[in-house]
Design a protein that fits this description.
The protein is mainly alpha-helical and 124 residues long. The protein is built from five helices and two strands. It is globular and about 45 Å long. The two termini are 23 Å apart.
Length: 124
């Protein structure tokens, strides 16, 4: 329900901005800024991209269109402050309707009523 409420607020604000011609803001740019995260396409030649592509191609038959780096403010600093050395890849299956919420707030523990699509790659 929180995802629906958040998306509703974003959509209402986009409609408001679109209805005011004096505001020079593309609605998609507004949504991108409202998420508060930075998305960057990673070059295919990047060592991290190559690592991910090798892994994905060994476990998945589909085509990878692009790999994005997502950076949320303060997230790297919070992770480093924990002093954890046990990093691993995490693949998460979710409905596209959850994308804005995930990019804005990160992955959250699934509530008991969450649909099983959130566990498309297994339950950790």
């Amino acid at each position: 329900m929180r995802e629906v409420c958040y998306c509703y607020v974003v959509i209402i604000n986009v409609r408001h901005i679109s209805a005011v011609p004096s505001l020079d803001c593309n609605p998609l740019d507004y949504v991108y800024r409202a998420m508060g995260c930075r998305l960057q396409v990673m070059p295919e030649e990047d060592p991290e991209s190559q690592y991910l592509l090798r892994y994905v191609r060994s476990t998945y038959r589909g085509k990878v269109e692009a790999i994005y780096r997502c950076q949320r403010p303060g997230e790297d600093k919070r992770l480093r402050s924990l002093g954890l050395e046990n990093h691993m890849l995490l693949f998460h299956g979710s409905c596209t309707s959850n994308l804005i919420s995930i990019l804005t707030r990160g992955l959250l523990v699934a509530p008991p009523e969450a649909p099983p699509t959130g566990y498309a790659f297994g339950k950790v």
